Amino acid sequence: MISEKDIKYIASLARLDLSDEEIKKMTTDMSSVLDYVEELNSVDTSKTSPTLSAVSFSNNFRQDDEKTIKCDQKCRQDLIELAPESEDGFIKVKAILK
Amino acid sequence: MELENLSIRDLNKKLKAKEISSLELTEFYISQIEKKDDDIKAFLSYSFDEAKKQAKKADEVISSSDDISLLCGIPFAVKDNILIKGQKATAASKMLENYNAPYDAFVIEKLKEKNAVFLGKTNMDEFAMGSSTENSAFFCTKNPHDKNKVPGGSSGGSAAAVASSQAVYALGSDTGGSIRQPASFCGVVGLKPTYGAVSRYGLIAMASSLDQIGPLTKTVDDAEIVFDAILGKDKKDATSVAYPEKMAKSGLSEITIGIPKEYFVDEVDPNIKDIVKKQIEELQSAGAKIKEVSLPNTKHALSVYYIIMPAEVSSNMARYDGIKYGYSKQHGQDLSDVYFNSRGEGLGNEVKRRIMLGTYVLSAGYYDAYYKKAQKVRTLIVDDFKKAFEEVDVLATPTSPTVAFGFSEKTKDPLSMYLADIFTVPVNLAGVPAISIPCGSLDGMPVGLQFIAPWFLEKNLFLVGKEYEKLKQN
């Protein structure tokens, strides 16, 4: 059984601000899903290896340079403009150190 | 025949014969949207001016060449989690309400090369998380067959748009059934391709080992045409592969259809079971062989899905931080406040629920018990399919255990909503292709028949699907 304290801790890991009401509802909802998936413990997987993806594939490598990335001044500006706060072509963030 | 009932191939003939121009066809579909969408609410945004420009360009191509693409000049709709450069891509979330896509998705690039015409972006569950489109942050879409019922989800807007003839076809995405289930609920065809067949570049990621883009169409032939146009390896998606040429069957008499007994269990509406079984019998009379098979781990698929999917969701959703783009709440003292507040206010309940579940199953002390366990059982589910496909060419199942349900019927209890995906999630876990085809109705609501094929054998789905459609026409 998952507790409200657990939920608050997980929310802090996930960087989610949850209201008291949300925490209550989340506790019930998550408990019911976790109870449901409990049934997997009945499956014998001692000789089974995990599947990460159903289809096999390999990495695509590329040079880490401007030519292959193809993001010119205009493209860079478009991306910066999507940021809520920017200054002199950089994304601006609040203080990191207190 | 009415313009709105014409297939892609028929429209292509008319365009080539200059019986109609792409601009006229596009204006017809715009008028359909203007007539119907206030009521159905399939679209989140329209791009009519852009559509007319594209149509005029398509008309130029048609007038200068005899050899045009089947999709040239044909108007269609796009789920709002697929990026079109310069157009809004909200994924039906407050988080991306004002986000303009800075580039084209791979599938959009492909369709632009073919001079296809984009009518607008369709409604969906927020970030594709849901089975009814009720999780859209903006509004609900109605099922064109009964406006008190949901269209299914998460590609509910795309399904409703095609079902109400507001687009010739639409693109959707399918992580656990999000193309096939709404196709089933709205009475259209929906294809989830083999994982890796279509590039996910420019698809707003939900669960990266499960997501696939696919078409929602009126006919199986239309689905095949769109699929052929969007497949292919893309350098920008390392999980996309060069589509391998496999020997497909050439006629129904060469096909053995497997009936997996685990898909005809008590949880399915008995009337749906009857309807689906009857369709399989009809295919048998037409020459297909039938064989009962067993996929014993099907019963674990939903549990596996509700561990692996949220785990991947929680990782993918970490990018919405209020810093780079999207909803941002700048009040507070430091960077951490921006994260907490932007995510807390910008994301909806279902998205938060899945982030929380995923964070939990990936957290220290629980990783092996949940995530690793689920990945191991996923292997057993994949093995079930491998084994079944040694004996049969395709599997036939109901797409969904029920027909479309009413609004708010399942929103209070998330688990009851999750159960709507019971027959579609195993397919995503295994990465195999599957198609949902309308196969009748129950109390006036469409029922979907799902065919599942081995990896990269979509051709067998199209073969069986087309034969099935022929049977129904006669």
How would you describe this protein?
The complex is a heterodimer of chains A (about 100) and B (about 475). Chain A has about 100 residues and is mainly alpha-helical. Helix content of chain A is about 45%, strand content about 5%. Chain A has 4 helices and 2 strands. In chain B, helix 2 (about 20-40) runs antiparallel to helix 3, helix 5 runs parallel beside helix 6 and helix 9 (about 300-315) packs across helix 12. Chain B is α/β, with parallel strands linked by helices. Chain B has a domain at about 5-230: Amidase signature (AS) enzymes, CATH 3.90.1300. In chain B, about 40% of the residues lie in helices and about 15% in strands. Chain B has 15 helices and 11 strands. Classes of the chains: A mainly alpha (about 100), B alpha/beta (about 475). At the A-B interface, helix 1, helix 2 and helix 4 of A face helix 9, helix 10, helix 11, helix 12 and helix 13 of B.
Task: Describe the structure using short key phrases.
heterodimer; A: 98 residues; mainly alpha; two-stranded antiparallel sheet; 43% helix; B: 474 residues; alpha/beta; Amidase signature (AS) enzymes; 15 helices
Full CATH superfamily name of the domain at 3-230 in chain B: Amidase signature (AS) domain
**Strand neighbour order, sheet with most strands of chain A:** 1-2
Q: Which range does the strand content of chain A fall in?
A: under 5%
Q: Which outline of chain A best applies?
A: flat
Helix content of chain A: 40-55%
What is the beta-strand fraction of chain B?
Answer: 5-15%
